[in-house]
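Retro notes (design track)

What went well: tokenization of the new backbones is finally stable.
What didn't: we kept losing track of which sequence belonged to which structure.
Fix going forward: every design gets posted as structure first, then sequence, in one message. First example under the new rule, 53 residues:
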């Protein structure tokens, strides 16, 4: 019983999955912020170009 608990505590295979999940969520959040910021600027640029025509 002690060896099973000890093995469960020292097992870190799930830790890498959690780390990859956190990293992926951080990259997705950065992409969403960048796209929303650049999207509005590009939209204004095309609107201004269309109005000039």
């Amino acid at each position: 019983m002690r060896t099973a608990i000890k093995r469960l505590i020292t097992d870190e295979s799930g830790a890498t999955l959690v780390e990859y999940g956190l990293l992926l969520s951080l990259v997705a959040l950065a992409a969403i912020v960048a796209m929303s910021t650049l999207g509005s600027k590009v939209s204004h640029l095309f609107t201004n170009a269309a109005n000039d025509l």
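Added context from the reviewer: The CA atoms of residues 17 and 29 lie 18 Å apart.
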